[in-house]
Design a protein that fits this description.
- This protein has 267 residues and is an alpha/beta fold.
- It has a single domain, classed as Aldolase class I (TIM Barrel), CATH 3.20.20.70.
- 30% of the residues lie in helices and 16% in strands.
- It has a nine-stranded mixed beta sheet with strand order 6-5-4-3-2-1-7-8-9, covered by helices on one side.
- The longest helix has 14 residues, at 165-178.
């Protein structure tokens, strides 16, 4: 699928839940968010049907996000359903890692291709502060569980004004020792206009000119652009047309999003 600016859209990010076991300061408001009822979110069968139609239109990569995707009951069965779709070459997941000791082996067997694990610091106290109570040991154990299953892993490190060069250096050394990739993500506020800033070499967010993705939210809408309030409601009687409309609606460049918190979108 090509959007109105001749960008080929091949990547679908799917937020399976807005729930999370952490409360990261840049992702979720301190007071939390109003959680959706089970009846208000897409079923696994609905997600798979949408993904299958997306594959027919040229989507070849899917990433499962949240919230925290591993808090969604039965998530491994969804991974199996999606991995069986013809045309999907890559099925990835972004997670905070804390549940990987429980699920890594099952995810591998179900067909998950790779895992991105969120980890912004190797300092236990700073990690606890950033996640509002999270345990650094929990995510480190998750990384080991994923490595034991031979998953390709990226570490997603959000870099803020408070991040020191020493923290980045330590993370580089850790990733090098473990044989995993480090992906530095510039912290940004959805409610402020997107801007490009290159004081550090960041891997994310990508430049708008190269954006190849759309996002399916757990409540059944598609966001053509992360930095926009525009959403297209999936018409379950004509999923194909909903997807085409979303792709054609992608703006040339992101602006701001005031209607959602990051935890509802999955980045």
């Amino acid at each position: 699928m090509l959007d109105s600016y001749n960008r080929e859209i091949t990547y679908l990010r799917i937020s399976v839940t807005d729930r999370c076991n952490l409360r990261c300061v840049y992702c979720m408001p301190e007071e939390g968010v109003v959680q959706k009822r089970h009846d208000d979110i897409l079923s696994f069968e609905e997600i798979t049907t949408i993904a299958r139609e997306a594959a027919r239109l040229g989507i070849c990569k899917i990433r499962l996000t949240g919230g925290e995707p591993l808090v969604r009951k039965g998530i491994c069965s969804l991974v199996k359903q999606l991995s069986d779709i013809e045309g999907i070459d890559t099925l990835a997941m972004t997670t905070n890692g804390h549940f990987l000791p429980l699920y890594a082996a099952e995810l591998k067997e179900a067909g998950l291709s790779s895992i991105n694990i969120s980890l912004d610091t190797l300092d236990p106290e700073r990690y606890k502060k950033l996640t509002r109570g999270g345990r650094l040991e929990g995510v480190l154990e998750g990384i080991e569980a994923a490595l034991n299953q031979n998953f390709p892993i990226k570490i997603n490190m959000v870099v803020s004004d408070e991040t020191t060069m020493d923290e980045i250096s330590r993370m580089n050394e850790y990733c090098s020792e473990k044989g995993i990739r480090l992906q530095k993500i510039r912290e940004y506020d959805l409610k402020e206009d997107k801007f490009e800033k290159e004081e550090i070499v960041y891997q994310r967010p990508p430049p708008c000119a190269g954006c190849n993705r759309i996002r399916l939210l757990s409540g059944g809408t598609i966001k053509p652009c992360l930095h926009s309030d525009q959403e297209i409601r999936i018409n379950k009687d004509n999923i194909r047309e909903s997807l085409i409309q979303a792709v054609r609606s992608k703006p040339r460049c992101g602006g701001s999003c005031s209607s959602r918190n990051m935890v509802e979108i999955g980045g």
